[in-house]
Amino acid sequence: MSRTVPKLLAGALALPLVLAGCGGQQLGEEASSDGPYRVFFTADMTGATATLSRALLSGMKVAVDDVNAAGGIGGRQVELIENNDQNDPTSAVSALQELINSGRKPDLVYPGGSSAVSLSLLPITTREEILTIGGTVASQLNDPESFPYHFGTAELTDAYVPPFTMIAEERGFEKVAMIFSNNPTGQAAEVAYREEITAAGLEFVSVGYQPDALDMTPQLEQLRSQNPDALIFEGYGTPVQYLMRSRSGMRWDVPSFSTQTSSTYPFVDDFSAAELEQVRVIQSNWTVDEGETPAEMVEFIDKVKALPEGDTLSKTGVRLPAVSAATFQLTAWAAEKNGGKTDTASIIDTFYNDLPEEGGDATPWVTDSKGPNPYRFTEENHFPLSPPEIFLYIEPGMYDAGGMYVPGKRS
To answer: For every residue of the chain, which 3-state class applies, written as one string?
Structure first.
């Protein structure tokens, strides 16, 4: 195995890093152009969103192995440092700061599995001029003026709104309700949907819930009393189960549409066909089984399957490992294009000037396996841009063994 994966325990008084295969590197050695390319990955590995985080980690491991087998990033072998932050921003901040203070400043940071964690880490990485690339999607993250070294590998919440507006206009909805989690991701989603829907001339009402709530019936009743034609529901992980259970308990059969974050929940595992009859989930076309899976995606899936974390494919799908793998794939691609330069400024300059328009086999990442390359970064935009046509509202189903979404599938 070409990957080196020391574990970092947040909040410890010291950093118990066990470095395997790093050429005798000493604690306190700063990042350098000829040492290992250090990557700090932090996510919730034991809490409520651990399955989702393990899926992210699987993509990271596949990409690290591929990059190291090909000679590393700019000739430097990647050292992946994992941290379990249990989705706690304070824990993530402490762990990163301890790593920096120890003299082992990372070259790249994957800033958490939630936007709340990302937003807490970016002030530090900005101050330290550390490149950050991640899959969290709150619109506040796409702020190159405030966070010039941060890039995203998944579309922002805003990108998923136009497809809903198209559905609303087609079906003649006049009033749309939304229930969302009171955290940065949910709040950003609410703003995005509110602005787009009201701009289309539709009425919009919304209500938030606490992320640790077990019953959302009061909030849903508040929305139902306003007689909306449709419901948008937002959440991440277990809260989606409680939200949908509350909706079922109310016997409210209003047409209901997921956001991108809530679409990852395995609805058919917990709800009957009757309960889901009026529910639709949004997915990117490259994650949906449409009869034939591109060869590059099949190869990527096989590599994920071979890992211990590969069991997440049938639970949370291929999207999460694909967007996390793009973190390394983009960085390694940039270093190859710019002649082996791995400093943050050189990587970003290459992002701005050399990313191709073509997708598929033209790039090492698989998020463009069914379309053009979405990563066309500019000084004004650091997140992927995808046309509304790639997003599909489909019947809730299941992921197959390879993580491709199969509409209507049940076990």
So the answer is: CCCECCEECCCCCCCCCCCCCCCCCCCCCCCCCCCCEEEEEEECCCCCCHHHHHHHHHHHHHHHHHHHHCCCECCECEEEEEEECCCCHHHHHHHHHHHHHCCCCCCEEEECCCHHHHHHHHHHHHHHCCEEEECCCCHHHCCCCCCCCEEECCCCHHHHHHHHHHHHHHHCCCEEEEEEECCHHHHHHHHHHHHHHHHCCCEEEEEEECCCCCCCHHHHHHHHCCCCCEEEECCCCHHHHHHHHHHHHCCCCCCEEECCCHHHCCHHHHCCCCCCCCEEEEEEHHHECCCCCCHHHHHHHHHHHCCHHHHHHHHHCCHHHHHHHHHHHHHHHHHHHCCCCCCHHHHHHHHHHHCCCCCHHHCCCCCCCCCCCCCCCCCCCCCCCCCHHHEEEECCEEECCCCCEEECCCC
